[in-house]
């Protein structure tokens, strides 16, 4: 009897092991560091260890190399690392949940313990095997497992499939797109933009016998503020959605890695369209109307990650227009845009068409990102195009009249302290553009809806309640110019970290740190993060 008692006692994890695993879980949840005092104050919420006992264990563990402690300027101590002792105790698993390697089917909202056991008896040991089952396979495994409940389980089960499994499946699909037809092996592809000399499609009003002003022939703004009262923009839809330069939906067979994401219905996720601050009209409506006017140059100004390029790509996708995007920098020369003069084997000097010139010849929408930073000569070479709609390439001795569907849009960051390294635009050039501002989305719910569709389109990665807190915190960062700013694009990355297994607070801390400028202090934003998560 006494030996059994001794064996039972020996099998119980000691307090240091429990505390070390608790600290590991808290470090994961808090994002890599946690005040020592918070652990000692909160430890009794999880395990039966008193405040002073926890403090003593932490000091002993630090001396033994179990915990890494950091002392702040004010004398406060922070735990920044831990070496967990032994296997994770059941008491910690019960408090924080099992890992992906020990699936618990009861996390599915309609699964009871009896259904969980029935699944295991039927041979379902992983969420992947459960997700692959059919409704008929599950119905009737228990007396309470009805057809409707089985359907609900199959709808939710994919959300719990370990991320590694989902990533492997997605990677296999992407690899299959790059297989050589003859060798059945993955191959690289080199595409010369200048050789993609296929003109974009014709306006559908011409090829389908429609009136030019018919709604079927043009882009109708029906997102954002216009969702309930669509507005015709006059920007004609073209008839060749498969043109190589038209942005493709992720579900398209020719979609690349930069394809537009789709929702559960297979439709491209629309952008979160802000209202232009001064003109007080939805930005997609304004931009489409500017593009409908012909080769009218448009300047889109907005902070990084506000969705400038996504909005343009979306309009191009919806209207089947080519999209050619060029990232400019201080080394961008005229020949980089329009092509150099190159010698032939016969010794002749002939012009080679560059990507910007080819985009205009094809009738695509030419997008020049960070336009002000490129060399003045390259910008000046566009003046005649902006004034008269004709491109003069002096080096080639050519006067190019672009395809009637050609358009030009430049993007740039606003002249704020965060973008102090951006070059100001020459006033003579600036005056040639219709300028529109694309700010961050002001409405939390609108950005939440857009982010939800992007992140949770295939399977649920982040629950909506957590996602709302993530968006609310991002809005806080945009209101304080001393903090690193989180854009919608950054929030997609945050959700990616969460999908990889990181805690929401840890994922946000990582992204705040990642975007911080040298003169900014992420720790200032971390304190406010506690108010949200």
Strand content: 5-15%
What structural class should be given to the helix and strand makeup?
alpha/beta
Beta strands, count? 14
> Biggest β-sheet, characterized?
5 strands, parallel
Strand order in the largest sheet: 7-10-13-6-14
Q: Kindly provide the radius of gyration, computed on alpha-carbon positions and rounded to a whole number of angstroms.
A: 29 Å
Provide tags for this entry.
533 residues; alpha/beta; three-stranded antiparallel sheet; 23 helices; 11% strand
Summed up, what is this model?
With 533 residues, this protein is α/β, with parallel strands linked by helices. The chain is built from 23 helices and 14 strands.
Tell me what you see in this structure.
The protein has helices spanning 2-11, 15-30, 36-42, 51-63, 90-96, 113-121, 127-131, 135-138, 147-156, 163-176, 204-207, 283-292, 308-319, 334-338, 355-362, 376-380, 383-388, 427-430, 444-456, 464-478, 488-499, 504-515, 522-529, and strands at 34-35, 67-71, 77-82, 218-221, 231-236, 298-301, 323-327, 341-343, 349-351, 365-369, 391-393, 398-400, 407-412, 434-437. By secondary structure, it is of the alpha/beta class. The radius of gyration is 29 Å and the shape is globular. The model is unreliable at 1-11 (pLDDT under 50). Helix content is 39%, strand content 11%. Helix 21 packs across helix 22. The strands form 5 sheets. Strands 7-10-13-6-14 form a 5-stranded parallel sheet.
